[in-house]
Amino acid sequence: GVQRLSANESTMRRDNRYMWAGVGIVLLYIFYQRGNSSNSTSPRARPQRAASAATQPRETHRPATHRPRTTRRRTKPAPATEFSFVFQTTKGNMTFLAHRDWAPLGVEQLHKMITSGFFSGGDPNGPEPEGGIGMFRCVPQFVVQFGIHGNPATAREWGRRVIKDDEVKHTNAKGTLTFAAAGPNTRTTQLFINLKDNAFLDKMKFATLAECTKGCDVLDRIEMKFAEKPNQGAIQQQGNKYLKANFPGLDYIIGATIM
């Protein structure tokens, strides 16, 4: 015959069903919370600071960091103390002396850029559209800024190679070379040369890493008429095609060599 449950047994089975249903809800809630927690700790894009006209040599545009990686060329570390290098530009050559004790992280990054061929883009007026590193921000009596690669893919790759800030140990004197930044600990490849003594940049944590020792008069011949008109975001996205189409006569770095 059909087995009948007592009132107590029926109540116990109903309570068990409620208990297991409650356990399931708790487990679902735990997994949901874990998912939210993982999202909250994922890397987020840093807020951008707008560049202040003729007062801060900052990067105003940063490329996305989720692009697929490309192959990196292995480079030897920079010399322990100092080294000389030459920037070949469309207006002549400039020799610099890099001081590791001024900015060890910055000097190491610069050395990697030179020895990996970052500046070896060639003639900007040649057949290769990405040839040359444009001097896209030239503000009279302030700075000449450059360092966005003419090939957007290369610019994105180097945009991931962020270095921390160095302590400021030498002033931003006329003829010194310094990394630009978009905020604390955001230095990548953009650099600027001081056209005059800009000691106020020392307090803003811009650490110089090299000084011009020969050919400094080249700076007097750099084209300044475009000032701050070139858009950094457009350079990152379109490369030198954007610069060549909109700013004919702009000057470029066409090579760099360790001496």
Strand order of the largest sheet: 3-9-1-2-8-6-7-5-4
Overall pLDDT, averaged? 80
Secondary-structure-derived class: alpha+beta
Calculate Rg over CA atoms: 28 Å
- Total number of helical segments? 5
| Shape verdict | globular
Query: Which ranges are low-confidence, i.e. pLDDT below 50, for 5 or more consecutive residues?
Result: 20-53, 63-72
Number of strands: 9
User: Distance between the terminal alpha carbons, to the nearest Å?
Assistant: 102 Å
Percent of residues in helices: 25-40%
Order of helices and strands: HEEHEEEHEEEHHE
Main beta sheet:
9 strands, antiparallel
| Beta-strand percent range | 15-25%
Give me the secondary-structure topology.
Blueprint: H1 7-40, E1 82-89, E2 92-99, H2 104-115, E3 133-134, E4 137-139, E5 143-146, H3 152-159, E6 176-179, E7 191-194, E8 208-214, H4 232-238, H5 240-246, E9 252-258
Antiparallel strand pairs: 1-2, 1-9, 2-8, 3-9, 4-5, 5-7, 6-7, 6-8
Can you walk me through this structure?
- The protein is built from 5 helices and 9 strands, in the order αββαβββαβββααβ.
- The protein is α+β, with helices and mostly antiparallel strands and 259 residues long.
- It has a 9-stranded antiparallel sheet with strand order 3-9-1-2-8-6-7-5-4, with helices on one face.
- A hairpin with a 2-residue loop joins β1 and β2.
- It is globular.
- The N and C termini lie far apart (102 Å).
Which terms would index this structure?
259 residues, alpha+beta, nine-stranded antiparallel sheet, 5 helices, 26% helix, globular
